[in-house]
Amino acid sequence: MKTFAGRTAVVTGAGSGFGHQFALLAHKAGMNVVIADVQQDALDATRSELQTLGAQVLALKTDVARPESVQALADATMARFGAPGLLFNNAGVGGTGGLLWENSPADWEWTLGVNLWGVIHGVRIFTPLMLAAAKDPSFEAHIVNTASMAGLLTPPNMGVYNTTKHAVVALTETLYQDLQLVTSQVSCSVLCPYFVPTGIFKSERNRPVELGAHDQLTASQRIAREMGQKAVNSGKVSAAEVAQISFEAIAANQFYIYSHPKALGNVETRMRAIVDIKNPPDPFAARPEVGAQLRRQLRDR
After folding, report:
1. Whether pLDDT at 147 is above 90
2. Residues forming the active site
3. Which of 45, 110, 34, 40 lies closest to 73, judged by CA?
4. What's the CATH code of the domain at 126?
């Protein structure tokens, strides 16, 4: 995508983290900005910040897990600005973590609803709008789906989250191939960040009431949350830096976007085991003391 100025960016999960930074950079690039989030106060804060900066902004409370909510976002975008040139399917939750068999149907429904169905709804609803606009040969557009390095790896004790992010990677790779069949004006990327300080491990605050509060954590779920928060909070790459990397990748039509390229060594090890028909490698090979501690905690509970 060569031109940002004058076009419109749609950002889900814009109330915090990556989404907040995507919205700021979109305005800085001269774009109209449509922001969506399920948390009204966070959405209002981002809108106020953008308006103070002089942005043309539309804000709409959106639950990406609900198709009618994403459709309303698309309808409002079209009515105000027309077809977007940039879509960030970014809203996401950390889920409950823990051993796979200890997650309830509600845990699965919540995490799949936001992390996977949110992306599905965004692609299903917005892509046709972009393709219709691409009848104008000057129109170009790009979709960025936020996955995770957990979409390329299989770290233990966080299987529900891993499942959603692997699905987003596969979905986006297929979207890329499908778009290549029909147009050269609309493309996509998948963002796979590693540990970046964001509010993702505080996402229980937005868990739908009908899915029940998750106050009684199992030992494995408590450990997963503690380890996840510690890892995320220790991250040295900021959400703002990831947003900048992402915009540079979009401009270069780069499909895979990484915050921590050095982590790809672990991906290579996993892929080599697949090709060589070997069992999954030890995820703690580089830090055996962490693996030993986790096994001890889970076996002694």
Report:
1. yes
2. 161
3. 34
4. 3.40.50.720
